[in-house]
Design brief:
Elements: H1 3-50, E1 68-72, H2 74-77, H3 80-93, E2 97-102, H4 106-109, H5 111-117, E3 121-123, E4 139-145, H6 146-166, H7 176-185, E5 195-199, E6 217-222, H8 229-241
Parallel strand pairs: 1-2, 1-5, 2-4, 3-4, 5-6
Length: 248
């Protein structure tokens, strides 16, 4: 390769090294502006819903929303005041059976602080009533973390192994029914949420126990710091209007 070819290759690499970051930066700006434009109508709609401009949101039929799960990114879960505000909104709407989840167990560690600020709330372990029963005078709260899910699977697997060992049936197939029964026996089969609201940067359930989401509707709500009452009301309203066909 002669000197001219080497210089040409060097110039091309220099242009690519300078140009690609600029292209990426330009595309990032375009995407950011686009999503900002899309967010403007949602902001005003949420504002109008909060002030009762739209009559359809004033009366929600919550028969199908017996149990609600709130998944919060662990960094946001440290903001207890925002969590309590969210629970107050849910109570005012009429949603009183709630599961709070974050991966690192921040919400479980903040349980006492949440109960102190939310006098109407009771732990799921403290009430003897059926958790999915509508009780208007208080909220029933369940606190779950990623570790709970791992421990539940380990306990259920150990139970199934011991049962199969006693039956001398170590080659049997593991079915969903067997797993659900094992989780129920070890006390890790909580209520299945009808709706799961995710407050975080990504559109996923962040490790919420998968066996509790067979028919769960999942809605991404954005960051907890930017939560809005109108957006919460809209998400619940849309869920109540959806026809759910579970099959036979």
């Amino acid at each position: 390769m002669d000197l001219r070819s080497i210089n040409l290759s060097h110039r091309i690499l220099t242009i690519l090294n300078l140009g690609l970051p600029l292209v990426w930066y330009f595309l990032h700006i375009i995407v950011t502006i686009w999503y900002s434009i899309l967010a403007v109508p949602n902001f005003f709609e949420s504002y109008f819903i909060s002030y009762g401009v739209f009559n359809k949101y004033k009366s929600l039929h919550l028969q199908n929303l017996r149990y609600l799960a709130i998944v919060i990114e662990s960094e946001d879960a440290h903001h207890t005041s925002n969590v309590v505000q969210l629970l107050h909104w849910l109570h005012s709407i009429g949603v009183n059976n709630v599961c709070l989840y974050d991966m690192n167990g921040v919400l479980k560690k903040s349980k006492e602080a949440i109960f102190q600020k939310l006098k109407i709330a009771k732990s799921i372990e403290e009430t003897n009533e059926v958790v999915t029963k509508h009780v208007p005078d208080h909220m029933t709260l369940e606190f779950v973390s990623y570790v709970d899910g791992k421990e539940a699977v380990a306990k259920a697997a150990n139970l199934i192994f011991r049962e199969n060992l006693n039956r001398r049936n170590l080659c049997g197939e593991l079915s969903e029914t067997h797993l659900n029964e094992a989780l129920q026996i070890v006390g890790c089969k909580g209520p299945e949420p009808d709706l799961l609201l995710v407050y975080g940067p990504v559109r996923c359930h962040l490790g919420f126990p998968a066996w509790r989401m067979r028919y769960t509707e999942i809605v991404h709500m954005g960051s907890l710091s930017s939560m809005r009452y109108g957006s919460l009301m809209k998400a619940i309203y849309i869920f109540t209007k959806v026809h759910q066909n579970y099959g036979t």
